[in-house]
Amino acid sequence: MKLHALFATVALGAITSLATAPVHAQDNVCASFLCMAGKTQGKNNVQGCTAPVQAFFSPSLYIYDEEGIDWPATAANREQWLSQCQGSQGQNSGILATIIAEYGMRASG
Question: Helix axis angle, 3-16 relative to 23-40, nearest 10°?
Fold first, then answer.
C-alpha cells in the first residue's frame, strides 16, 4: 500500500476512535505507527518523526528477564502498543507486521 493511502486510513481511524480514547494518546501511537511505517519504506529522518520513532524505541516498552532484554517479549509489547492505533488494523495489519519484523527486536532505529 502506498504511504499516502496509509496516512488517509490512519487519519480516518484516528477520527473514528476519538470517542474511545484520549486524543493525545491516540495521536501519539498513530504518529509512531505512521513514522515507523515510513521507516520500513526507507523514509528516514522525516520531519516530525523524531519523537514518534523515539517513542517506539522507548525503554518503557522493553521487557526484561533475568538475562536482560527479552527481545521476543519486547517485540510483542511494541506490537501491542502500536495496535492501539486503529489505523494499524485491518488492511494495515501487514504494515504492522512488517514494522515488528524489521524493528521490533532492535534497540534503536
Answer: 170
Angle between helices 23-40 and 71-82 (to 10 degrees): 120
Strands (E), 48-98: 64-65, 68-69
The residue ranges of the chain whose pLDDT is under 50 are 1, 7-24
For the record, the C-alpha cell of 88 comes out as 494499524
What cell was used for 71? Answer: 527481545
Chain CA centroid to CA 79, Å = 7
* Amino acid (1-letter code) at residue 52: P
Distance CA 71, CA 1 (A): 28
Euclidean distance between CA atoms 69 and 107, whole angstroms: 9
* DSSP letter, residue 92: G
Mind listing the pLDDT tens digit for each residue in 46-59?
899 999 999 999 99
Q: Give the amino acid at 78.
A: R
